[in-house]
Amino acid sequence: MDHPEHLDVLIVGAGISGIGAAYYLQQHHPDRQYAIVEARGATGGTWDLFRYPGIRSDSDLHTFGYEFKPWRDDHAIANADKILAYLRETAAENGIDDKVRFHHKVLGAEWSSEKGRWVVDIERTDTAELLQISANWLFCAGGYYRYDEGYTPHFEGRERFTGRIVHPQHWPEDLDYTGKKVVIIGSGATAVTLVPAMADKAEHVTMLQRSPTYVLPVSSKDRFANIAKTVLGDKRGYALARRKNIAKQRFVYQFCQQHPAAARRLIRRLNAKQLPAGYPVDEHFSPTYDPWDQRLCAVPDADLFAAIGNGSASVVTDRIATFTETGILLESGRELDADIIVTATGLTMQAFGGMVLTVDGAAVHLPDTVAYKGMMLSGVPNFAYAIGYTNSSWTLKVGLLCEHFCRLLAHMDAHGYDTACPVPDDPHMQTRPFIDFSAGYVQRAVDQLPRQGAGQPWVTSMSYHSDVRLLRDDAVADPNLKLTCSADVTAGLVAR
Q: Where are the annotated coiled coils located (predicted)?
């Protein structure tokens, strides 16, 4: 460990972001040495981790897929198996598989300004061996939540329930729900996916929600995209469908933000059209917040509403008083019988995989840092990260920031720099939460995350078109990005 292996770039995470980062790095900097460390034993990230029935993307794959690799399947809203196959095909086609080191969990990383590199502490989770890798750059592509622990709130009387309690993040392979009464606690994307997927085999599925979520029926197939692919071929048809869907996402988001009352009425009308006559739409599908204050839940081919309509599923809006031996007692006094309770209660948010960062001997306190261009942190040199959009497809932003990262490396090479560190011009700059999003999983962790500023380049943008201008079109040189050479630090020419 006195002389750890050295790389130009160490990518953390072999999911959709890590595979994308590796592709862009190979394309733009083929001579740079890199590796991907992955804590688990397989590639694919989220799409390999989650195994619950019906798991799918709620973003279309023409925008959720990579810009450089066409999505060829006829279904635009696809299940996890298809997405995982697409990711692994991407990795195999580009030789990225050979760069992945499995069961390598990053514990922490220490930056040295004199050496101009990170020394990364890693645990081999399969052997408990500790090792180190040094790298000029650390690129964190590990997502935003804990893979080993989902979020479950306290439920009074939980220990009394004699049936089975399951969290979707840890779905048991042996769970047989055929002919069983199932209660799914939650109203987000996972819950609305599970309900129709389980309703075909279960005796009955009840979605128990504390408050409603906006649910939008969409077609699982994109007719325009499939025609474009047939007429123009995979590559050009995909590019055209991608542009169309980017514009569509932007329109829907802006319409909801600018005309919330009209958007609310429209969504309600679409829901009522899919539900049985006389169904209490306002009780179960009319949230108190405005559309896109939280993410809209897309249900392909209205499958959730179909399950409600045929009686195999139902929605209950109420609060839990306590679990009982046979189910759940609600505050209204109603009891829900259950053989299986699924706690689709969300994720546990975690920044950068929980790794501890140290810069020149001082620990980095994330809430004291400010996001730079949505991809670096103030005061943390040669550290980049991938985070996607909350109001659009995740991968749209990942592609742009990977492009910008590669452009930054080229700029530094051309001017003889090896260190890049964001430093605000105004040390007293007003800041706000890292992500302006009211979802519970964000709010529970907001005080543990970095911050963002009031204007560029310190904003965590959620606008693809703004990011195209900032990350693709604008110069990488910025007064707030301090570029130096570690040799000058060693010579005492740069103040530390």
A: none
- Count of CA atoms in the C-beta half-sphere (13 A) of 58: 21
User: Which segments of 173-313 does DSSP mark as H helices, in order?
Assistant: 189-199, 223-232, 234-258, 260-274, 281-285, 303-309
- Report the C-alpha gap between 147 and 41 in whole angstroms: 13
Rounded Cα distance, 69 and 178, in Å: 39
Here the tokens at position 287 are: 């949230």
Domain 158-221+259-343 belongs in CATH node 3.50.50.60: yes
Cα–Cα distance, 284 to 313 (Å, whole number) = 13
CATH annotation of 5-147+348-490: 3.50.50.60
**Which parts of the chain register pLDDT below 70?**
1-2, 437-441, 489-496
- Kindly list the distances between the CA atom of residue 198 and the CA atoms of 203, 205, 256, 308, in Å, as whole numbers in the listed order: 9, 7, 31, 12
Going by their DSSP bridges, the two strands 451-453 and 431-433 should be labelled as: antiparallel
For residue 91, give the nearest of 79, 99, 83 by alpha carbon: 99
**Nearest 10 degrees: CA dihedral of 490, 493, 495, 496?**
-10
Q: Is 329 helix (H, G, I), strand (E, B) or coil?
A: strand
DSSP string, 125-154: TTT--EEEEEEEEEEE-S-SB-SS------
Tokens representing residue 303 in the block: 């499958």
What's the one-letter identity of residue 156?
E
> Given this model, what pLDDT does residue 495 score?
45
Give the Cα separation of 131 and 120 in Å (integer). Answer: 8
| pLDDT value for 446 | 79
CB 400 within 8 A of CB 70: no
Coil, strand or helix at 317 = strand
* 3-class state of residue 441 by DSSP: helix
pTM over the 0.85 mark: yes
Beta 164-166 vs 340-343: how paired, if at all?
Answer: parallel
> Could you tell me which residues come within 8 angstroms of residue 259 by beta carbon, excluding any fewer than 6 positions away?
none
Pick from 148, 104, 147, 149: nearest CA to 127: 104
Which of helix, strand or coil describes residue 3? coil
Fold match between 5-147+348-490 and 158-221+259-343?
yes
Alpha helical stretches, state H, 259-354 = 260-274, 281-285, 303-309
> Residue 376 belongs to what H/E stretch?
strand 376-377
Tell me the percentage of the chain whose pLDDT exceeds 70: 97
CA distance linking residue 264 with residue 215, whole number of Å: 11
Would you list the domain boundaries of the chain? 5-147+348-490, 158-221+259-343
Q: How many CA atoms lie within 13 A of 358 on its CB side?
A: 12
